[in-house]
Amino acid sequence: MCIPPTLAGVLIALILPVYPPRRNEAERAGKLTRAFRQSPNSDYARAAQLSVLRAVSVNERLLRVYQPYTAFLVVPIFALANAGVVITGQTVSDALRSPITWGVILGLVLGKLVGITAATAAFSRLRPGSLQPGLTLSQVSGGAALAGIGFTISLFIVDLALESPDAANDARIGVLVAAVLATGWGWVLFRLADRRHPPEGVTGHVLLRPVDPDRDHLRGPVDAPLTLVEYGDFECPFCSKATGSIREVHAHFGDELRYVFRHLPLDEAHPHARFAAEAAEAAAVQGRFWDMHDHLFVNSDALTEDEIYEHAEQLGLDTERFAEDMRLGRYRHRVEDDDLDAASSDVHGTPTFYIGATDSDLTLHTGPFDAATLIRKLEEARAR
Fold first, then answer.
1. Cα separation of 228 and 81, whole Å?
2. pLDDT tens-digit map of 247-304
3. What residues does each domain of the chain span?
4. pLDDT > 70: what percent of the chain?
5. CATH number of 217-383
6. Which residues 6+ apart lie within 8 Å of 12 measured at CB?
7. Phi, psi (5° rounding) for residue 179?
8. Are 225 and 378 in contact (CB under 8 A)?
9. Minimal CA–CA distance to 284: which of 343, 222, 214, 236?
10. Which residues touch 165 (CB under 8 Å, ≥6 apart)?
């Protein structure tokens, strides 16, 4: 029995597992990678490599491997072969003198550009704010120009629209020329759009919610010229190590730095982190957030419910009020708000830092979070 290639491809696609990257797999990959960095050997290297691969679905891995070949080789050959495009010096010369060729080129290159851009502009006027944040009409025009790359569908439609073989071949050549022109025209429009409206950063690269002194937990002067924001987890061992770095950074800058802590409990990896975050908020109501913050990180391996209550007693908090606040979950929403902020910024790991001189330029820090690196990045932010 012969199975058509198209059907075989569909069947293969149906049996491939598809799922978003799992946080617990990403956490495990991170741990194994750090283990390899600390103790480089073949076993850790293999384990880290496999854990990174498992964090991404088989479908995405295969897409990454085959996409260059399918997009730039298989699909073009398939389309050209099945559309019956005849390209010789004579056919190209005839096509360039044919009104059909130029009609197709104008329709795809100019028609798509004008139609899509004008329709989007009209709709955005009827419904202000309908364009996504950061999206401009200049960028829409670039996408509209690229829409002129009709290729596969356009080539097949030619057979339905034209009966004359010569006219059909002229139209097919017009489609191919339009694809080249639309690509170049789209590139030019996107470059011009970037010059007129420089990108402000993608989600996660800039801090979406500005620092609010009335809401956020700040260490340092409110009007300090430098800001360091951390999304942290009280049970995260790397966050515990980062607290030492932050103390050194504070000692270096003094009153020139304000440090902001926001909650990002990683529930799957750290089952006690959310309760600890709520405990810090309950302590904040009694004016002891930073005392609890420091104490929890020092005791990050002792964060069970009973141990949390012991920490509150050791800090001299009003334990009855503290216990009632925790029992009723009065500050659960406060932790969840920070958690949602992190999710909207596509932040899924701890510690995550944002660094800048003003609220408008707080950008994501990537790389090591030792004191020397953070100090250097803050100095660079001040110099900008």
1. 58
2. 999 999 999 999 999 999 998 889 999 999 999 999 999 999 999 999 999 999 999 9
3. 25-57, 82-196, 217-383
4. 93
5. 3.40.30.10
6. none
7. -60, -40
8. no
9. 214
10. none
